[in-house]
Write a structure and sequence with these properties.
Layout (H helix, E strand, L loop, with lengths): L1 H34 L14 H32 L4 H13 L3 H33 L7 H32 L4 H24 L6 E3 L3 H14 L6 E4 L10 E4 L6 E5 H6 L2 H16 L2 H23 L3 H5 L12 H16 L3 H22 L2 H14 L8 H7 L5 H6 L4
Parallel strand pairs: 2-4
Antiparallel strand pairs: 1-2, 3-4
Helix pairs in contact: 1-2, 1-15, 2-4, 3-4, 4-5, 4-12, 5-6, 6-10, 7-9, 9-13, 9-14, 13-15
The structure holds zinc ion (ZN).
Zinc ion binds next to α9 and α13.
């Protein structure tokens, strides 16, 4: 009983601390961007005009306002599920309807996801059709938005339910070492999904057409050969169906790798600049950033499963988070859900570490592109992308430290010869 109250107190304290820190970061970001709105920073005076700079500031401020509502909703929802007894209520309801067993546990997790999704739906609608629309980024129709939702739900169920059933079953039947089996199954399954995604999942959402630019393809092929990179074709993705934001990326593994450019990117950049952006992506490959990230995540997930293997045996973990564990053995879904809700609260103050690592990877990729392609072209491509995506040039340094996977424009350009 004492441990249970202690667990509640620690969780409540950590949640308050998280929320205050996030509010503080948001208010810093708002203040910083608003303060620098009147003038283009001197380093960009020649390349970015005042209206673009102010649009980026207004867009950033609008996103920050929405983030405030997001934060309030997330915090309330987390409290409602845990200390206010929402999860316990849902569990009892399904127990009465279905009785204990694997199906009840699957239903608990599925309803948890559906309820969370429905509650977040209005904000998601607002983000696309009000915020993105106001700044001229949204290209989505309401019917495309709806069909995306249906597809995500269908594919999520198709891919998610079998592995969920397997993990829940292993938790029940796998003995004391269940967490090793569950971790291994989930890790292999994630690799499998990453492997099938480019050919089976992504085409459900976008059209991929071969790149019709032999000159660009030839230039990019030279870079690829030098890096020892083999790709199974170059594709253009119709990103403009949904948004005016732009990007470029690799998908797939081994010889199945594809190079994908957003059609929006092709419109914005010259072929010199495209080559430099591609060289940046190649830099990520050359430095093995993706492989390292998968390795790190797999390791983190092993630690997570080991911790869950211990927590599931502690009554205070359940009662401290507002749930009465069953006398029978079927607490697996409850433990899994509580763990996944509490984990981000426990880990928030570590997020600057992973953001820092990600920003260092970006610098490495930039310097690869400068060496093997062209610094001035990468710099002008970045400036265009910052401008077209209305990315602020003046983010708050603390906000960057916690949230940004990419370094601010000024820092990236300072390292490039222009
Ligand atoms: Zn990058």
């Amino acid at each position: 009983m004492k441990l249970s109250i202690l667990m509640s107190l620690i969780f409540a304290f950590a949640l308050v601390l998280n929320t205050l820190a996030k509010l503080w970061l948001l208010s810093r970001q708002v203040k910083h961007v608003a303060q620098h709105r009147a003038q283009v920073p001197s380093a960009f005076a020649k390349s970015i005009d005042l209206p673009s700079h102010q649009k980026a500031a207004d867009y950033t401020l609008a996103k920050a306002r929405l983030a405030w509502y997001d934060l309030a909703l997330d915090t309330l929802l987390l409290l409602a599920w845990t200390l206010m007894g929402g999860l316990a209520w849902l569990d009892q309801l399904l127990l009465q309807a279905m009785g204990p067993g694997l199906w009840q546990q699957m239903a608990l997790i599925a309803s948890f996801i559906v309820i969370g999704g429905l509650i977040n739906l209005p904000l998601s609608w607002y983000r696309t059709f009000v915020l993105e629309h106001r700044f001229g980024f949204n290209r989505m129709t309401f019917s495309l938005w709806c069909s995306d939702l249906i597809k995500v739900a269908a594919i999520g169920s198709l891919l998610g339910l079998p592995i969920l059933a397997l993990v829940l079953w292993l938790m029940q039947a796998g003995g004391d070492q269940w967490w090793i089996f569950a971790w291994a199954s989930l890790s292999l399954y994630q690799l499998f999904v990453m492997w099938i995604a480019p050919n089976l999942i992504m085409p459900l959402f976008n059209k991929f057409t071969p790149l019709q630019d032999p000159a660009l393809e030839a230039r990019v092929s030279v870079l690829m050969q030098r890096a020892g990179f083999t790709a199974n074709g170059f594709f253009v993705m119709d990103g403009s169906r949904r948004s005016a934001h732009s990007n470029a990326f690799f998908t797939g593994f081994g010889s199945h790798k594809r190079v994908v450019f957003y059609d929006t990117l092709l419109k914005q950049l010259s072929s010199d600049e495209m080559e430099a952006v591609f060289a940046h992506e190649l830099g990520h490959f050359k430095h093995k950033h993706v492989a390292q990230m998968i390795g790190l995540q797999t390791l983190q997930s092993l630690l997570g499963f080991a911790l869950l293997g211990w927590l599931i045996q502690q009554t205070w973990f359940f009662t401290g988070l507002g749930v009465q564990p069953h006398m029978s053995d079927s607490n697996q879904a409850l433990a899994l859900l509580l763990f996944l809700m509490v984990l981000p609260v426990a880990m928030f103050f570590l997020s600057p570490l992973s953001a820092l690592h990600s920003r260092q990877c970006e610098f490495q990729a930039d310097s690869y592109a400068v060496q093997h392609s062209s610094g001035p072209h990468l710099a002008s491509a970045l400036l265009k992308l910052y401008q077209d995506n209305a990315t602020t040039l003046t983010p708050d340094p603390w906000f960057v430290a916690f949230y940004h996977s990419h370094p601010p424009a000024a820092q990236r350009l300072a390292r490039m010869p222009t």
